[in-house]
C-alpha cells in the first residue's frame, strides 16, 4: 500500500536502498535467531525469551515491554491498513448511495472488534487456520499485479524521482520498515511449535530472503508501470497496474489482515512470558498477565491488554504515525537479539554451541 508512494517519492533506486537497509537489519537478526534457537530451547515469548535468558531479567524488562508494545501497536497498524484497502468500496458506496463515508475508521474499528471477539473466543488456533486461506489470496493478488500490463506506463522510465520537495529518505524508511518485521511475528509463536530448533531457522531465513526479492521486484514493477506523480497520488495504484483490478484490494486486505492476526496472536504471548518471569514489581500483576486458559494456556488477559492498546491507536487513525512508532520499537528488539549472539560468540561461552552457525557479524 505504501510501496508505490515510496517509489514516487525517492525513486526505485531509493526504495531498493530502503529494502537493502531494512534487510541489513533483519537478515543478520534472522541468522542470530537461527543460531540462538539451535543452541537452547526457545519457549513461549519468542524474542523476549531469547533476550531474557541471555541478558538477565534486570536488563530485559524494558526491552520486553518495548517488544510487547511494538507487537500490540502493530495490530492497530495493520487494521488501519485493512480499512484503507476498502477505499474502492467506500468510493462506490458514496457515489451510488450518497453515504458520505470519509473516515476509514468506520471500517477499521468494527474490523478490530470482530478480530477481538475471534481471538478471545477461539484463540491462536483459529487464527492459524485462517492464515492459510489469507496467504493463498495474497499470492494470487501478487501474481495478478506482476503480470499486469499497465495503461499508465510513462513515456520515459526514470529510476530516480523528479518530484520537488521529496520526503526525507529515512522518513520513508520508517514508513516502509514495518514491512520487514514478520521475523518477530513468527518467532513470537515459538511456544506453539513442535520443534522450534528446526522450525525457527527455516521459518525465519527463507521468508526473509524471499520477501526481499519480492519487494525489489515490486519496486521495479512500479517504476516501469506509472509516473512518480501517479504513484504518489494514488495509494491503491496497484489495482490500476494489475491485470484484474479487484484482486488488489482483496489482496491488500488479506495481507494486512494476516499481519494483524500474527501480531494479535504474538503480543499476548510476550506479555504472558513477562508475567511468568515476575518482571513487574507487583506480584498480583505478574500473576494476572501470566494467567492462561485452563484448556490450552491461551493468554486471555494478555489478549485483553493487547486489544485495548490496539483500539487506542486505531482511534488515532494515522497509519504513518503508527508506522514510525513500531519501527523504533522493532529496531530496539532486533539490536538486542543481535547483541546476544554477538556477545556469545566473543565471550567464548562453552555452553554456546549452536548446531546452526553463520558468523553473521562479519
Word description of this protein:
The protein has 362 residues and is mostly helical. The protein has one domain (3-346): Amino acid/polyamine transporter I (Up-down Bundle). Helix content is 72%, strand content 0%. It has helices at residues 3-37, 47-55, 57-84, 87-97, 105-122, 124-146, 169-176, 182-187, 196-225, 228-233, 238-241, 247-276, 283-290, 300-316, 319-346. The two termini are 34 Å apart.
Topology (SSEs and partners):
Blueprint: H1 3-37, H2 47-55, H3 57-84, H4 87-97, H5 105-122, H6 124-146, H7 169-176, H8 182-187, H9 196-225, H10 228-233, H11 238-241, H12 247-276, H13 283-290, H14 300-316, H15 319-346
Determine the oligomeric state from the structure.
single chain
Helix count equals: 15
Estimate the mean pLDDT confidence. 83
Number of domains in the coordinates?
A: 1
Low-confidence runs of at least 5 consecutive residues: none
Q: Please state the overall shape, judged from the principal axes of the Cα atoms.
A: globular
Helix-and-strand structural type: mainly alpha
